[in-house]
Amino acid sequence: MTFDYAPAPESRSVVDIAPSYGLFIDGEFAPASDGKVFKTVSPSSEEVLSEVAQAGSDDVDRAVKAARKAFEKWSALPGAERAKYLFRIARIIQERSRELAVLESLDNGKPICESRDADLPLVAAHFFYYAGWADKLDHAGYGPNPRPLGVAGQVIPWNFPLLMLAWKIAPALATGNTVVLKPAETTPLSALFFADICRQAGLPKGVVNIITGDGSTGASLVAHPDVNKVAFTGSTEVGKAIARTVAGTDKKVTLELGGKAANIVFDDAPIDQAVEGIVNGIFFNQGHVCCAGSRLLVQESVQDELLDALKRRMATLRVGDPLDKNTDIGAINSAEQLARITALVEAGEAEGAERWAPACELPSAGYWFAPTLFTGVTQAHRIAREEIFGPVLSVLTFRTPEEAVEKANNTPYGLSAGIWTEKGSRMLWMANKLRAGVIWSNTFNKFDPASPFGGYKESGSGREGGRHGLEAYLNV
Ligand code: TAP
């Protein structure tokens, strides 16, 4: 693709990145007790952004102790006082959103127009929303005097680093719990920036602790005997391991896991609008989205028309520098994720599906994958069954609404679905039949802090967001 006009990229000098970061425990940054560190790199340039402390089990223990100590006073504060801290955090996030958006795009690879216009506003909105609940818990419909659980151990993935942090920390603090959170290994920087925001907001020490590390850090946090609540977002495989770890303990647990959503287009749908929804559904955030519309189910009679329009639209997508405001598709988050996407795409071809991608020049350094479409896909193909977590769409067809429902539900997952039709009665009929936690109609990937989010089947258990999201952090 060539462009006549390339706007200046958002400058990385907008945000200061320290050469190294410690763990944030009890209100202070400190090295890991054994001095171990790891590097975090920018997936769009492979440049090392910073060196970050790798928490071992001693550090996890220190963080949990700090959170336990802070819990006594924090949980005893009137809700209105806790709300003041949360409102303050929300406002600082808004004030510093430019720095945070650039940092998120550098560390994660997502386009700046998404981190600036989607991630950051949603992060602030989440803190504002739960700040509003903090003094109204007695009126949340749980009966009198709902009590916090204690210390929450929270483990999050790399696809929406700051937004997943907000989904975890905001309801936990609003309900009077204290937190130890582990961000993903490839995207620790915005969580560490958030630690600084907690200090700026004057949040009491130990209420929020951020421990960076890998899967083993997450595993020791989840297994720590003094953690009362486990909240996890990530792969179904790790979610199952966590469920085994907490089985038989009194830990409360919520799991937000993978997905393989169907985006279902009927022949009466407005085609141009559906194409925008399909593109947003699968190419937003490079397809690193648990609720991505990764299976397009199109009614046979409009298949040709829809696919022609979709290909024309895909050819206009700009892949490249995440800090360029005109970029639609940024970098794949890591070499490992790129290898996983590549392997599944090769499996798609080997199993006989037809691969198509627009002509697209990819930068030489960094991790990239062109927006890709597969037709001739059957239910048996791996690309129709497994979560690819990349910018790859598998197209299947159907003739009747019953067949659409059968195909959409034919997956071990059940996180989300999309329905494109003019008929209100059909939307409601489908919504009742689809086994998915979130269903969008004539839109896709719409999020609101007031709306509960979570899955059926292997997409997890429990809900985050809305009033439902409070319950996960309360003894009711
Ligand atoms: P995971 O490998 O599951 O990693 C998620 C988090 O768990 C990371 O912080 C990871 O640390 C940590 N972890 C790894 N092994 C662990 C263990 N044994 N015990 C405790 N923690 C452990 O997933 P990912 O690759 O980061 O993210 C992609 C997956 O997350 C996709 O399947 C996607 O669908 C799912 N996801 C779901 C949702 C929702 S809301 N349902 C949202 C986003 C993503 P390291 O990073 O250091 O490995």
From TrEMBL:
GO terms for molecular function: oxidoreductase activity, acting on the aldehyde or oxo group of donors, NAD or NADP as acceptor. Gene3D superfamilies: Aldehyde Dehydrogenase, Chain A, domain 1, Aldehyde Dehydrogenase, Chain A, domain 2. SUPFAM superfamilies: ALDH-like. PROSITE patterns: ALDEHYDE_DEHYDR_GLU. Signal peptide: none annotated. InterPro entries: Ald_DH/histidinol_DH, Ald_DH_C, Ald_DH_CS_GLU, Ald_DH_N, Aldehyde_DH_dom. It comes from the Bacteria. Residues 33-476 form the Aldehyde dehydrogenase domain. Keywords: Oxidoreductase. The active site is at E256. Belongs to the aldehyde dehydrogenase family. This is Aldehyde dehydrogenase family protein. It comes from Streptomyces piniterrae.
